[in-house]
């Protein structure tokens, strides 16, 4: 019964870990956009500071997608009671399919930017690194 509950909790735990991780990065990204240095009020410096804040916010969004995808695979495999290798591969397949569907889906309200495409790339890399991490740490799991 305990194993059944753990197997039922694999996907919810993976989704929860992914959402929490991404929420943390979004919060920092939002804070980076709102960062204002009060003693720099000349227009040139304020414009430069605004560009740096936008870049930092975009970088946090991109890295956040990669880390959230990594956490999706690793957390789900961690909750699995046995056969974590297969659980991580299944979660990676599920995550990759979701990313592919969102990549080819039509965009409403404009075109995708370089941040979007880089976010997808980092998310795929995060999934692959999560599977590799799980495969390397659970070699004795096959018994």
Radius of gyration, in Å, reads 19 Å
Low-confidence stretches: none
Shape: elongated
Number of helices: 5
Q: State the end-to-end distance.
A: 20 Å
Structural class: mainly alpha
By DSSP, the count of extended strands is 0
How would you characterize the largest beta sheet? Answer: none
Describe this protein's structure.
By secondary structure, the chain is mostly helical. The protein has one domain (2-142). It has helices spanning 2-8, 10-34, 43-79, 84-104, 114-137. Helix 2 packs antiparallel against helix 3 (43-79), helix 3 (43-79) runs parallel beside helix 5 (114-137) and helix 4 (84-104) packs antiparallel against helix 5. The model has no long low-confidence stretch (mean pLDDT 81).
